[in-house]
Amino acid sequence: MIKMVFKAKQYRRWMEALSDVKEAAKFQEWDMPHRMATDYKNLLFKNITDGKFAHSYAPYSDIYLSWKTQKLGGAFRLQGTGHKMFWRLYGDLLRNLSVFKTKDGVMGGIKAGVKDSGFKSIFSKKRRSKPIAMYARVMEYGLASHRGKARSVFRPTASEYAQGGMQKQGRKALRRIGAKW
Asked: β-strands 97-102, 105-110: how paired?
């Protein structure tokens, strides 16, 4: 038989520490996903504005290149085989990158249902606004009418974040929990 004897003061200290660790873990369960979603959104914004993945993008067509160059007032310049402005035209996508709740937790990106301000089509002069998530999805995965030319930025940014920022936030959460012990 093993007999253990605790001093009341020591036992209370352990129980308080365990309670603090439990509270810290519960807080990290809420806080860490928010920090991660914010980090991802910020990295996405940076990758879009820096044109990080644009090196392999070619214009959809010469007509589209001409239209976009005209809309951007000459700011649309090719840089090697690609350029920084593939994901940028009027700024609706960048302005609407956010962190938002989902049924499974929290997410960084474009919330479903958010629409642009209209006048965005090469084919029409009408003020028809479209869901930003719709054209982000088209850019991300491509369309058959564009011969499958995708302009992926969300997926490669998620992979980049998973390899660095996600682990950093996990370590930060563990340090915060451990500090309560």
From this structure: antiparallel
**Sign (positive or negative) of CA dihedral 33, 37, 42, 46:** positive
Look at the alpha carbons of 122, 124, 129, 131 in this order and tell me if their dihedral is positive or negative: negative
Helix (H, G, I), strand (E, B) or coil at 44: helix
**Phi/psi at 56 (5° precision):** -105, 5
3-60 pLDDT, tens digit per residue, is 878 788 888 988 998 999 999 999 988 899 999 999 999 999 998 888 787 766 666 6
Residue 140 and residue 152 in contact, taking contact as beta carbons nearer than 8 Å: yes
Burial of 70 (0-12, 13-18, 19+ CB in 10 A): exposed
HSE toward the beta carbon, residue 152, CA cutoff 13 A: 9
Alpha carbons 19 and 8: distance in angstroms, whole number = 16
Distance separating alpha carbons of residues 19 and 128, to the nearest angstrom:
56
Contact (CB, 8 A) for 167 and 160: no
